[in-house]
Specification:
By secondary structure, the chain is of the alpha/beta class. The chain has helices spanning 22-35, 42-53, 58-68, 72-81, 101-105, 108-119, 161-172; strands at 93-98, 132-137, 149-151, 154-156, 186-187. The chain has a five-stranded mixed beta sheet with strand order 2-1-3-4-5, covered by helices on one side. Strand 3 and strand 4 (154-156) form a beta hairpin. The longest helix is centred in the first third of the chain and has 14 residues, at 22-35. The radius of gyration is 21 Å and the shape is elongated. It starts with 21 loop residues before the first helix and ends with a strand. Bound molecules: FE2/S2 (inorganic) cluster (FES). FE2/S2 (inorganic) cluster (FES) binds at residues 98, 100, 102-103, 139-143, 146, 148.
Length: 188
């Protein structure tokens, strides 16, 4: 093919069929508008969408791709590369379990395996009822009193498997620290 007959890609805007509700669509478009001129705009846009909507749903991926003139696969690739981004609604309680070295030395690996078994969900996933999400974290600044957990902004120290079960039971019964009223990190 000669130089003069090279094919030129013409971007085509095609609206997604899986439309977002108007308020969510407005939030996504607002996030795009706010960050689109930045270099590497996709990450701040995804952060803002998750911050405002709680997760990044497939229809938001499609809309972001459309607005940035990217493919859905490109947006999806970034979304799935970072575990921080959620592709489903957040669990009622997210359990951040410290997997850093000091906590490991105090039994965090065994606790992690127990937590996965007890919740029936591996890290980065939610229990079947959607109430508990399990996420790794690398140091909560509570190293001498590990294994450490952070749940609903409440810090738990020296957590054993038995204590983990008791905490889950307490939260399931609604007797744990309510997420909305926990305004500061506390230690238990
Ligand atoms: S290593 Fe777990 S709190 Fe620091």
């Amino acid at each position: 093919m000669t130089e003069s007959r090279k094919r030129v890609a013409i971007p085509i805007r095609v609206e997604t069929k899986a439309a977002l509700p108007p308020d969510q669509r407005a939030a996504v478009l607002d996030a795009v508008q706010k960050h689109r001129r930045l270099e590497g705009a996709l990450l701040p846009i995804l952060h803002e969408v998750q911050g405002r909507l709680g997760w990044v749903m497939p229809a938001a991926v499609a809309l972001i791709a459309l607005e940035l003139n990217l493919t859905r696969a490109e947006v999806h690739g970034v979304l799935t590369f970072y575990h921080y981004f959620r592709q489903r609604p957040a669990a009622t309680h997210t359990i951040y379990l410290c997997r850093a070295e000091a906590c490991q030395a105090l039994g965090a690996n065994g606790l992690a395996a127990h937590a996965e078994r007890a919740l029936g969900a591996p890290f980065h996933q939610c229990s079947a009822d959607g109430r508990f999400g399990l996420e790794p974290v690398y140091c909560l600044g509570n190293c001498a009193m590990g294994p450490s957990l952070l749940i609903d902004r409440q810090l738990y120290s020296r957590v054993t498997a038995e204590r983990f079960d008791a905490i889950i039971q307490e939260l399931s019964a609604g007797t744990g620290a309510p997420r909305s009223s926990a305004t500061a990190v506390g230690e238990r």
